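Quick one: examine this chain and its backbone structure tokens and tell me how the chain folds. Here goes:
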Amino acid sequence: MAIRPPLLQSGDSIGLVTAGSPLDANTINARAQTLRDMGFDVVFGNHIYAFEGIEAAPAQQRAEDVMSMFRDPNVKMILATRGGTGVQTILPYLDYEDINDNPKIISGYSDITVLLNALYQFSDLMTFHALMLIDFRMDTPAYNFNQFFEATSTLNTPRLIENPPNMPQVSLVPGNVTGPIVGGNLTSIVNTLGTPYEIDTEGKILFLEEINSPTTTILRHFTQLSMSGKFQDCLGIIIGECTNCPVSYNTTYADLINHKLVPLGKPLMTNLATGHGSYKATIPIGASVNLNTIDNTLTVLEPTVSE
């Protein structure tokens, strides 16, 4: 069982880090003010405003910011400003034993996927594929905030993860499996293969989502995951949206799912609202979930934070 971080309450301090690509300082400041308006204090990483190219700052500096937030007893949650590119480069510089000793909520998606899964694998910490700092703005759908705070600020269990109205989840292969959930952004997960931080899917439920990738690229990624045994090892598969993904050779994202994933025979749910779409379900990486594609339900079976 993964370690559950302490829950988030009004008045707590949230540590902000730029773990991958840079984000404009005006956006950071505006979103930080939204957090303050919601009743939280904000702590800034030393390199949060760094802007040195594709990666905001050297990997060691970005890793130092993450570690400083874990070590700060006043910080209750670590929030990535954005994903972008380069989060994977900080993984060798993290102290996973120290993180295990100082569990706290950490949230993000996109390229942050690699950090979330590494912390679960190497620190045994439950993490949250959920909102980033850029999402804390007034026009963010209430669904996203409701999902986020129910997972991070309550002990509610079991918790049914349901899409917003008029966006049905679709089950394509019937089955009923229970296990820890892992995954996130497809490109980010494929980029870990063959490294010390390769995702472990054995006995787990794997969920995937993507953005801006043509279906030719999706096919390559599905093939890589299949050839590396990740689909074969997992108990079931959950597929989220492919946001802004162009069609190639008249083959759609849905076509690839039907042609490449359905034949695997694993319980398979599609169209989950996650990651880059407008609606973002909060997925607790490492939590025990039940995927029932007979009843078309996804249920978190345990609290995802502690008192």
